[in-house]
Amino acid sequence: MAWEPSADGLNQIITLLKQSQSTDNAMQRSVQMKLEELNQYPDFNNYLIYVLTQLTTEDGPTRSLSGLILKNNIRIHGTHLQPQIIEYIKQECLRALGDPSPLIRATAGILITTIANKGGLQNWPELLPTLCDMLDSQDYSVCEGAFGALQKICEDSADTLDSNTMSRPLNIMIPKFLQFFRHSSPKIRSNAIACINQFIINRTQALMVHMDTFIENLFHLSSDDDREVRKNVCRGLVMLLEVRIDRLMPHMNNIIEYMLIRTQDSDETALEACEFWLTLAEQAICKEVLTPHLARLAPVLVRGMKYCDIDIIILKGDVEEDEMIPDREEDIKPRFHKSRTHTQKFSGSVAGGAIGVGGGDGSGAARSMDANDEDDEIDDPYDEMDDDTNLSDWNLRKCSAAALDLLANVFKDDFLPILLPILKETLFHQEWVVKESGILALGAIAEGCMNGMVPHLPELIPYLIACLSDKKTLVRSITCWTLSRYTHWVVSQPHDQYLKPLMEELLKRILDANKRVQEAACSAFATLEEEACTELVPYLGYILKTLVFAFGKYQHKNLLILYDAIGTLADSVGHHLNKPEYINLLMPPLIQKWNMLKDEDKDLFPLLECLSSVATALQSGFLPYCEPVYRRCISLIQQTLNQDLASTTSPDQYEAPDKDFMIVALDLLSGLAEGLDGHIESLVVSSNIMQLLFQCMQDSMPEVRQSSFALLGDLTKACFQHVHPHIADFLPILGHNLNPEFISVCNNATWAIGEISTKLREDTKPYVPMVLPQLIEIINNANTPKTLLENTAITIGRLGLVCPLEVAPSLQQFVRQWCSSLRNIRDNEEKDSAFRGMCQMITVNPVGVVPDFIFFCDAAASWMNPKTDLHEMLQKILHGFKVQVGEENWSRFVEQFPPQLSERLAVLYNI
Predict the structure, then answer these.
(1) Rounded CA separation 146/456 (Å)
(2) d(Cα 97, Cα 723) in Å, to the nearest integer?
(3) What is the DSSP string of 397-434?
(4) Which of 644, 557, 650, 634 minimizes the C-alpha distance to 599?
(5) Contact of 815 with 851, CB cutoff 8 Å
(6) pLDDT value, residue 169
(7) CB 451 within 8 A of CB 415
(8) Counting C-beta atoms within 10 Å of the first and last residue's C-beta, which end of the chain has fewer, N or C?
(9) DSSP assignment of 704-768, as one string?
(10) Any alpha helices (H) in 412-553, and if so which ranges?
């Protein structure tokens, strides 16, 4: 017997569906509760599908809503529904794909995809054959409905469709889709392309065999009248450019011409086409194929950067003063805390890549590896450019700017003869929107064309500084961004000429009456701080007065960016901040905010990060504030651990905590330990920090372990007497975390082991077998990132210093990699202790270094000025080796050296 609804049940559900469309919150809550209650009845879902597919007397939105409620039920409770109910829903959905209403067809398609995703496509074997048969229906609604469903399935299940589990349905589906590229209905043509596009990126075999037909059909549709069709053609070509550029090469000129036209469309096709230039810029053939078209492309991209009228309305571009209007919470993007990682400073002052041994990139800066280094995410400057939640995250303006940026990096200064006339025309244009796009373009080319731009900067930088006080908000904000892209040059010039005026104007903009400008100025100022570092010291009083004044002025969102600017300032000027007048300016507003925020307020994250930098910079200057800050961090860690335990033991009663509170607190404690050094001892002694640390070090979340190992290392340096009693508990955990799968965790564990060994001295002996084999494995792994290699080498060296007899027998297994890793690091305490360890090990096991002695020579030459006793140790080993092998062998050995290395060794070690 087919299922039939009761009239009462049907009326009740129709009433609920009508009520749920009400805008009254109370009514919506009451409907929600009733819907939850009805879920107790198995045939509730039968009623919902009945309303969607058979109640044709009802209006479309009510029927569609019924289908969407059913979709959620299947998503949440699908696995518990009786098989006969699911069967009934499946049949009805397939029937409804031919409904005269496009809304009902689309809803049925969504339901079909949800059932397929939830139960697995392979468990609905008749679905794909049925949909493919429906494509041949003479009834347009049936064909279009089936295509809509297929498109969603291709989008959601591309991998499954291309796997053996389904006996390769794509071998039938792809040729079938290709037949519809020339269908009379634009909707169906568009669906057919969209379905096939899903299989380009994975180079699906079933598509590859039909590649020529596919490309030919795409070209045929390139001038289609329908916007969606053209959009999908562009999308397909962009993906082909990425994976099958060889097939496009014969047609590349025509494709470029076509994309030039499409990038100028007045609809969203322009964005799809603009992606083409982004992708092309990353291909090796870019320069060769694009050079003839560059002069026509550049103005198109710059025009694409111009705000259109609707953007200006959305961005409230005509609203000048809005600083008094509170932010809406939904406009504040979530911030992610980056956990502390211990890194080395490295220098390029070494004997120039001697014997191809090391490959230091010598930019002389500290690389900071953070939690995201595992997947190498780079912040996209174009995400920040018009930071507004109302404008779609990615739009033609941002895409055009990013494309111009990448192309400037490809063509470098050869691009300038084309760009300079465009810049001249736009930068000084009467219309502010054109001028604004010119300023953006100038920022976009900063990285790629920097050398060629240098002669023009003495004229352009003062012009941009003047634009910082333009009457248009959007001009002021983009100018902040563009100037931030040239700060490197500004800092290298005489201060009075550029740095001072830039700094003064940016500080005025930090106090602008417009929130967007405040935000852009704060971000630009943070970039300036990173570039200028201690060059800002003479202006510290003035800078701090401005930043502190902004505290009282800023609304919620910009306050979070202000914390970042203050933290970056502290990182950049370090101990120069430790002056009573600066501390008295800066600390009261920070502590006031700190006291106002509740423990569960996520605004604590940026404030704690900021305080961590400030504590490290102020050193003893932070002492008056350290106790309440320390206590609160301990309390945050304790609360998070308690919550975590409660939610693990009774998940139904307690929610899992946000562990970021604990991570940020651990990092601030690290900042305190580093800044206060021995002064932290009195705080540590009267707290349970060691017990908490023991728990955090075993947390399931990598970022928690990462931060706890950083703190352990910092406490080891600051007050080892309190760490010492717990070593037997801590070291096995550290050894267990020497797993390069979690780079930053492994990095911090390695560093902490090195710090502990220098304090434990010969008592490290029992722990060497626990850590040395993993460290040797890491240093010999070709995929180990540079920072981790360097920290591993230092820790092995330190272990060799305190336990040479235990480590030296393994010397042969790591000496070559060890020398290559440490040749790029600047002279510092850590390098010093590591090299002393290496000298000790060579003394114990000289044979271990013989096959790789050239690498040792190179590493010894990397010192600028080693301490006297270390210098003697290195010299003794070098001369000892020379005596051992004899003059003749030594001469032959030295002939292999690059001239630079021989010179360096002669000067440094008289050999």
Answers:
(1) 60
(2) 69
(3) HHHHHHHHHHHHHHHGGGGHHHHHHHHHHHHT-SSHHH
(4) 634
(5) no
(6) 85
(7) no
(8) N
(9) HHHHHHHHHHHHHHH-HHHHGGGHHHHHHHHHHT--TTSHHHHHHHHHHHHHHHHHHGGGGGGGH
(10) 416-427, 432-444, 450-453, 457-467, 473-484, 487-491, 499-510, 515-532, 540-553
Residues 6+ apart with CB under 8 A from 343: 366, 367, 368, 369, 747, 787, 791
Amino acid at 759: K
The tokens for 706 are: 């990462």
692 membership: H or E segment, kind and range? helix 689-696
Distance (Å, whole) CA 837 – CA 828: 14
Angle of helix 127-135 relative to helix 140-156, nearest 10 degrees?
Answer: 140
Q: What is the pLDDT of residue 470?
A: 95
Q: What ranges in 780-852 are assigned the alpha helix state H?
A: 786-802, 804-807, 811-822, 829-844
Q: Identify the pLDDT of residue 124.
A: 84
Residue with tokens 């540590």: 684
| pLDDT attached to residue 363 | 26
pLDDT attached to residue 885: 86
Q: Give yes or no for a contact between 568 and 609, defined as CB atoms under 8 angstroms apart.
A: no
Percent of the chain's residues with pLDDT above 70: 92
Question: pLDDT tens across 360-406, in order?
Answer: 332 222 222 333 333 333 345 676 555 544 445 788 999 999 999 99
Q: What is the dihedral of CA 466, 468, 472, 474, to 10 degrees?
A: 140
C-alpha 808/C-alpha 800 separation (Å) is 7
DSSP H or E run through 645: helix 623-649
* Amino acid identity at 50: Y
DSSP 600-624: T-TTHHHHHHHHHHHHHHHGGGGHH
